[in-house]
Amino acid sequence: MATLPSYQDAVSKLDWLELVAPYVADKDFTSLCSVNKRFYAVFAPRLWNDPLVAVRRLGLDPSDGMFVSTYTRRTKEYHLLTLLLLSRWGVKDLEWYLSFIFDRMQRLRPKTLALIMTLDFREFAKDTAHFSSDSSSRTIPHTLRQLSKTLPNLRCILLDGHAEADPAFLTTIPASEANTTPPDSRQGLLVLSVACCQNQLPNGFYASDKLQQLVLLDVSGLPGSLQPLIAAAHGRRNLRRLKVLKVRRREINDSMALMLFQAFKSSLWSLDISENRITDGVLDQFAALCFNSPSLRSQSRFMTEGKLVFDGQGNDTFGPFMFIQESDSSATFSDAERHFVDAPIYSAATGRDLQEDEAVRANGRTPLRRDSVDYVKAATAGDMDHPVPDWSDVPYLDICSAPAGITHLHISDTQITSSGVERLLRSSQGQLEDLSCDAPVFLPIQGSALTQQHLLPWPKNVTLRGALGCAHVFRPVFSSNLRVLRIHHSFVTQIPTLETDGLSTMARLWLAETVVRERSQMAFPQTFEPDMNPRLTSLTLTKIPRRSNGPLIDKLVHFLTLGGLQERAIRKAASQSSSRRSPVLLHGLRHLRLELEADPIEDPAGFSAADDLDAEELLNMGEGEGFSFFGDERRPQLRPEATRKKQATAGDEVTTHHTQPATVRLSAFPYSDIQGVSIPYRDTWGGSQFDRTIWVGDGMLGSNRHAVNEYMKLVTNPLLRSRVGPATPAHVKAGVPEGVLIFHAAWDAIVMPPELKPPRAAELHGMRDVLEAIKAFRIETRAAYEAAKKAAVEGVAELGTTTGPRHCFWSGRLEVSAQQSMAHYRAPGYWR
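^ Leucine rich repeat domain-containing protein, sequence as received from the core. Prediction below:
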C-alpha cells in the first residue's frame, strides 16, 4: 500500500519539470543543468545519482572505455560529461573509475558530492581481468574504504560479480580515523549487494554501524559460513531495518535454515534461499516463524472462488486437512464476477471503521511491490529516471514499512519437493505475492522411506522434476494475494523433466513427453489455466525443452489461447460496463515468460548418451525389448526367436487385461481383507495417534477409470500406503470420490511407468522446434486479431465481442528466452 503524502506535498503544486524529467534524453541532462537553478535542482540529482551508470548511458563504451559522444557544455562547474570524461580516449572502465575517485573527485564541491547516492559496479569494469590496480595506493578496496568519508550520502553499493572486490573494506575504519567523529548512524547504506564476490566477510561485518540501516542485503555465492550473519541478527540486535535478504548458493542445510528463520522470524518480507540444500523438513518451522500475519482467506467470494473447509484434522506428513467446497461455478472458473476486483470492506456494526492492522487481501489491481535490487535501489536512492526520496521519508516507503511476514519467497533449485511446495502454500495464510519454485522434485515417498526406494515399482536412478497435481493451491481460495509466479512448465503442460543416466537428451525429452506425460495426465487431469487465478499477472514457465514431439507445443499453444480468451472476456465485460459505478476489473495475466533450455540438436551429445550404454544399440531394440532401470536386476539377452515369442506373449497379456471381466477383484492386501472401499489406518499428528479411514477403491479393475485402476494396484505395495491426505480437485477429476482421504504416495507413483523403452531414431528426428511453433502460432493469431480490430473500426463488430471475426490472440507481454548456448537468440520483441 502506497504511503499517504505529507501535508506540504498535498497542498503544493506539481512542478512540470518533475513530470517531464523521466522522458528527457540522457544526453540533454548536462545542458539542462546549465539553464538556471530551478533546472539544476531537478536534473543535477538525476545526473549525479550514480556516476557509473550515468557515464555508461552517456556513451562510455564498455569494450574500450571510449566515449561514443563527447558533446559537452562547459559551465561554472564541470558537469559529469565534462569533468569526468576529460576527452580521454581508449581508457578502460577501471582506469576511468580510479581516475575519477583519486583525481577528479577532489575538484568537486561538497554539494555536488552529496548528490551521489549509488555506485553500481554490476555492469562496470566487467571486461577487466583483475578488479584492482598495480599501484598499491590506487586500488578498488582503497576507494571502498574512502566512500563513507568522500560520499556522505551514499545509499547503495552493488558489487555483484566482481570476484576480487573485498567488501570488508566498506566497514573497516583506518587507524588514522579511529578517533574521528563517527558518521551519523541514521544515514548509512540502504542497499548492499556483494553477490559472487570471492572474499570471505569478517565475523564482525554485519555488526558495523554503517550497515544498520540496510533495507536490502544480497550475500549470495560468498565463501564461508552464514553463521556470522545469523549471530548478528539474533535477538534483533543488528540489521533491524532489513526487509529483503538474498542468500543463494550458500550451502544452507535444514539446520542452518532453521537458525536463519529464528534469527529474522517475520521481520523480512522477501527471502531468497534458492540453490541451497533445503528440504521439506524445514517448511513447517518456516511457516510458523515467517508467516506471521492474519489469514487473508475469506468466504465472502464463495460463489466465485469456493471456500476452504477445515475440520481440525491433519497429520505430520500432509499437515492440516483442507478441502475446497465448490459453488456451482467456482469449480469451472466460469463465474460472471471472476474478473471483478474486491469491493471495499464494510462492517455491519454501525460506526465501526476498518482498522489499520486489520488483514484484508489486496484488490488485485494495486501496484505490485518488487524485491529486485533495481526496484529497491530506485525506491530508496532514486536513479536517472526517478527522484531521490528525502531521508525523513525513507522509513515510510512501502518497501521499508511493509507488513510483517514473508510475501516474496524464492526456493528454486533446492531439494524441496512438489508436495512440499503444495504444503507450504496450504500452511501460509494467503499472503504470498511472489513465489519462485522452478524445479521441485517429484517423489511419491519421502523421509525414511527413501532408503527402501529400490523396493518400489519405480525405476532406479530416475528423477522427475515438476509441479504436478498442485494447481489448486494457486487458486485465490488458497493463494489470496499471489501476483507473480515462477514455476516448472509442467504446471501447465503436465510434462515433467526426466533425469536419468544412460539415455541421450533427445531420448529423455521424448520419453517425458510421451510415456510419462500420458500417465501424468491420467493421474492429474487438471492443469493451471489463467482463469483459475485471474489475480495472477505474471507467470514464468521454466525448464521448457526446445524440441517437442507435439504434445508440449499443443499445451503451450492451448495456454496462450486461454490467455487470449481471458483477455477477450475482460474486454467484453469492460465494454458492457459504461457507468462510472460499474465494478473495476482485474488485469488478468499480462506477462508470460517462457524459459527454454538449449537445443539438443546443437549439442553434440544431443542424440547420443554420454554414458557407457550404446545408444545405437538401444535405438535398434525391438518392440518387446524394454530398458529397465531397476536395481541390480539381470535380464538375459533375448535372441530374435525369443524376442518374437515374448512379443506374442505380451500381446496376449494385454488382450487378456482388456477382456478381463469387471467382477475380477485384486487378491492382494488390502483387498483380500476388506469388503468395502476403505481401510482403517493409524496416523500421527503432533505426537498423538489417530484412527483414519482411507479410501482405496473396491479392487475391481474397471475399463473406464484408468487412474483409479493404477492406484488400486499400487496400494497393494506397503511402502506406498503413506502420506495420507484429502483428495484434491485433480484427484476428484480423475475418479476419486470427493471428500475422502487417500494415500498420496500411491497416487503419485502412478506417474512413472515401471519400465522405460528408448525411442527409435526416426521418432527422435521427427521432433519439432518449440520456438518456431510458438512464433507461427503468434503470427496466425495476430492476423486474426488485426482482422477483428479492422472490423471493429469499420463498424462491423466490437473488438472482443462474440460477433464478427473471432480471435484468441493474447496481447500481453510474451518473453521467450533460452540458454546462452542457443545459436539463434530472439529478443523478447520478436514474439510480439
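The first strand starts at residue 118 and ends at 120.
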